[in-house]
Amino acid sequence: MRLASLFCNHAVLQRDVPIPVWGWGAPRSRVRVALAGRSAETFAADDGKFLVYLPPMPAGGPYALEAVQVGGGRAEAQDVWIGEVWIASGQSNMQWMLAAGGESIDKTIPGVRMFTVPNTALPGRQTLAEAQWRIATPEASADFSAVAFHFARRLHEELKIPIGILNASWGGTRVEAWTSREALVQNPAMRAELLRFEASFFSGQLKGFLLDPGNQGIARGWARADLDDSAWPSMPLPSKWQAHNLLFSGALWFRLEVTLPPEWAGKDVLLRIGAVDKHDITYWNGEQVGATGAGLDETCWNKPREYRVPGRLVFAEKNVIAVRAFSFAYDGGMIGPANTMSVAPATGNASAIPLARSWRYAVEHDLGKANVLQPVAFGPGNPNTPAILFDNMIAPLVPYALRGAIWYQGESSVGNAAQYRELMTSIIRDWRRAWGQGDFPFLIVQLANFMPPCDHQPDSQWARLREAQLASMGETGVGLAVTIDIGEAADIHPRNKRDVGRRLAQWALHETYGHAFEPSGPLYTGMTIEGDRIRIHFRHTGAGLVAKGGPLKTFVIAGSERQFFAAEAFVDGSTVVVRHPDVVAPLAVRYAWADNPEGCNLYNEEGLPASPFRTDVW
C-alpha cells in the first residue's frame, strides 16, 4: 500500500478545486483516503492502482494525508498543506539552480516548496516520478530552480499561503520533447518527423559526441601533492577555459596549493569547487574525494560541487587540490560562481578560505571544437526525442491538481521560429487537455538578449523566436514575461533569474489572482501612419510610457523600399511616434529587432520593459 511519490511529506495541494490522490494497493481492494476531515473511497484496479478525488478545500494546514486499505495496509504523508501549485518547465534557464548563480537564502521559507522531477528519458509512458517535496531551507533551496523559486517566493509574499512548484525541466531540450505523441501527430511537419523516428527506432547510432578518451592525468601524477607544477600556466577561476583562448572541448587539469590553519589538521573539511562544466574528478593530496558526471550526462554542468575531505588527508599548511574537468561539447571549465568556491571545517564556525583565485592548469585532451552538440539518434536516452519528456516527466504528474504553468524554453528552437508558434499552441492545448482543468494559465518567458550587441538585424532568428513567443498570447490565458533587458552578450544563461521569476509572478498576480498590478511591460497592438511618421499603440502602458535613461533607442523605420533607418522616436502619451527625415512615406517600424538589442529602453512607469516587435511581415 503506497501513495504516489507526489503525495509525500511536505506536499502542497491545490486549493479550491477537487484534489486527485492516487497510489497502489492490493488489486480490487477498497481504499479510503482522508485529509483535513474530508474523505473519499474507491476500489483499486486490477493492477492495484487507485485514484480518488477529495472535495475542494481552502488554503490551510498542516494536515496528515492518509490512505487506508480495507483489510490491512496504510500509507500516509505528514506536513501536507493546501495552497497554490504551479508546474515549471523548459530547458536550462528554467533548470538553472539557485546556487549556480551564487544566490542563497539565509532563513527557511516554510511556505515555498518544490518537487523536482528527475531527468529521465526512458522508452514508453512512465507512471512514477521518484522525488520528494522539499521545503525552501538554506540548504535545500540551493538545488531549486532559481526562476521557479523567485516566482514562488513572490506569490507567497503576496498571497500569504503556501506555494508548491513541480519542477520538470531539462537543459538543451526542444518543445517537441515536452509535447505528447497525441498532440504531435496533429501537426503535419511533426507527424512526419515522429513517424520517421518510430520507423527507425532500433537503428539509431551514437554520433557526434566527443567521448572521454580516459583519465591519463592520473597516470602522469597530476593529482599527487608532490608534483612540481611550477611550469604549468595559470588561469583565474572561476572561468570558462574558452575565455582564455583554449577554443576546444576536452579535458583540463587544475591544481591549487592551499595553506590551512594548524588547528584544521586531522579534521574533516568541506571542499566547495563551484560548478564544473560538465564533469569533474576531484582530488585532495593525491586521493580522489569526489566526482560528478559520467558518460554523456549534461545535467550537472551548472551544479556547484561540495565534497567532504576526511581528516586523515588534511594537513597543516600545504595541501594540494587537483580537479580534472571534462567537457564533451560547448564550453568547459570551473565556472563557479566565486562564492561557491571555498574550503572550511566540516563542523564549527571557522571562516571559509576562498578558492576563487589563480589556479595552475594543464591540457590533458584537446578534442577540437564541439560548438554544436550532436544528439544521440532519437530514442531512449536522448531527451530531444519527440514526446519523450512528456512521457517521462509530465505524464507521471497528471492529474495532480495545479493552478497553471510557467515555461522558459526556446534557445534550442532558435532557427525554427516559423514552426515554433504552432508548436507552442500544441503544447499549451496538449497540457490543458491532459490535466482536464480547463484553460489554466500558461506563462512564457520571452527569450533574453544574447550575442554581440546590435541595434537592428533584419534576419535575426532570436527576434523571430521572440515574436513567435509573443504570438502565443493569441491562446486564452497565456502570459508573457519580457526579459529583453537582462541578458548577457557572452552567456546564454543570464545570471539574473530573480527578475525573471518576479515578472512571471507579476503577470500571475494580476491575471490569475486579481491584484492591481500592471502585468507586463508595453505590448504592441497596432500602428497608424500619419504622413511622414508612424504612431505605435500599446497595451499595458500602466501609468505611462518611459524612455529609460535618455532618448528612445533601437527603433527603425522603412518605406516601400524596405530599407530600414535608425529612427527618431519619442513618447506621446500612451503611444510612441517614429520618424526619419529620409523616409517620407513610411510603412513599417521595428523595435529591438536583433539578437541582442542592447540599449533598447522603452518601459512603462512600473519599470517593465516593452517587448520587441515589428509592424511588417517582410
Keywords:
618 residues; alpha+beta; 6-stranded antiparallel β-sheet
Question: What can you see in these coordinates?
Answer:
- This protein has 618 residues and is α+β, with helices and mostly antiparallel strands.
- Helices cover 14% and strands 34% of the residues.
- It contains 8 helices and 35 strands.
- Strands 2, 4, 5, 7, 8, 9, 10, 11, 23, 24 and 25 form an 11-stranded mixed beta sheet that branches. It has a 6-stranded antiparallel beta sheet with strand order 12-22-14-19-16-17, with no helix packed on it.
- Strand 4 and strand 5 form a beta hairpin.
- Helix 2 crosses helix 8 (498-512) and helix 6 packs parallel to helix 7 (461-471).
- It is globular and about 80 Å long.
- 47% of the residues are buried.
